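Sequence, please.
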């Protein structure tokens, strides 16, 4: 399987998800009952899928 770099927008969304997850988890922010760990995991999954799929 050939990996490709994610597009900038995809990378930016993953970073925003990760930072929001870190803020929720460690700073105790409450954003509508979201779990920080799930947001961090979603950011990593988005990056993994974007690397595996060309054009994402």
């Amino acid at each position: 399987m050939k990996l490709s770099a994610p597009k900038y927008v995809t990378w930016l969304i993953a970073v925003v998800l990760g930072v929001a997850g870190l803020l929720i988890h460690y700073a105790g922010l409450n954003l509508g009952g979201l779990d920080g760990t799930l947001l961090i995991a979603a950011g990593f999954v988005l990056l993994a899928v974007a690397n595996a799929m060309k054009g994402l």
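Helices lie at 8-27, 36-52.
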